[in-house]
Predict the 3D structure of the following.
Amino acid sequence: MKIAGVSEQYGISADTLRYYERVGLIPPVNRNDSGIRDYNELDLRREEFIKCMRSAGLPVEVLIEYVALVQRGDKTIEARKEILIEQRKLLAVRMQEMQKTLDILDHKIEAYENAVLKKRRK
Amino acid sequence: MKIAGVSEQYGISADTLRYYERVGLIPPVNRNDSGIRDYNELDLRREEFIKCMRSAGLPVEVLIEYVALVQRGDKTIEARKEILIEQRKLLAVRMQEMQKTLDILDHKIEAYENAVLKKRRK
DNA sequence: CCTTGACTTGGAGTCGACTCCAAGTGTTAG
DNA sequence: CTAACACTTGGAGTCGACTCCAAGTCAAGG
């Protein structure tokens, strides 16, 4: 699959896909005879993983480090696990903050709802 | 309370507090005779609100709009409510994405855990 | 009196993460 | 044969949100 197809399928711009590859967020993608990227199944799964991690706010820098470890093989499994555990922890904290904010928003929305009703009753 | 105190109490840098005021994210804070900011209770509650909203990723721009509406009084209540409902919706979506990522991280961490154990058993 | 340190301003700089651009090459449709 | 179009590269530009800087003012302690 060429870059435009991947871009459409995952909703990531071609520029961003090239950027990801350039900075090492995914390993180099194979090229056809004209030098054009030809994404295989593994590449696509990688893009999906990256998309998922990025959507949750994991920093590009951390993901680069993780991907580099994957490339170095089984001896890096412990290090990779530590990275994921750390990021999982940070993610859980962010989600807690967001939950707190969500609750406050719900309170405020309800308060505004009541204010609107009271106004209408006048 | 002076800016340094607020900064310490809320974990927001003095620069950021001034920035928030400059762009209209909070209304101008009163000054003492020497022109130094003197935050009152209301100002502090505003900072706390902003801190909470920002920690959940609500854009500064949206908050500026919201604060401007608050300044314009009761006739803007409906508009404010709409903003909060919209942001609440976006927040819920982001949280869902994060939950999905969290689940995947948990799966991966568990898989790594098993891989580590298998290795040790050799 | 004078230094120290917290504050003031306007404006410039930084950072993460893209996003866009110019110039060039290769494949395809008419 | 040529025009259109998808792709390539390296590098520059943008955006949101701060963060830092220079130059100046003021209150308090030694």
